[in-house]
Amino acid sequence: MEEKIEIEGQNMDIVEAEFLTIKQSTVKAIEAGTAEMQQICALSVDTEKAEITQGAIGFVKSNELNMNQCISGISMGEKTDVNFSLCPIAIGRQEVELKRSASGIVIGNNVEVKNSASMIVIGNNIQGNVTTLFDWKSALAVTAVAGGIYGLLRLFLKK
Hints:
Layout: E1 2-8, E2 11-53, E3 56-68, E4 71-83, E5 86-99, E6 102-132, H1 136-157
Parallel strand pairs: 1-2, 2-3, 3-4, 4-5, 5-6
């Protein structure tokens, strides 16, 4: 793995580096110790520390993840910060911080949400103001109705 790589305006398959700075590029896979990324499109990112600004990423895994103005499919980390972004699944082993963002599912030990929206938030300690689609009561009701409809359809479709 190379020590330090700086990339700008490239289309690449796989990038491996200890320290990576990448701008205005598309990459299939990134593996780095520390990565600073601006205006990138990547399929997968695996780093120790990632700072991503204005990126579109399919899957991000990082010990310390900070995303600003990004779109990401799945974002995982020990500490995950999502700011002004869209992230269907945000997972933080220790901490998730969601600021002015939208997310489908947020999971973390400590979850701090500021002016954000999410379908489901799961955590030991949840702080902040979040707009959720389901609380535990409505999630239970929706699950029961969906199970009942599924059971009826199975009965009618057997004949």
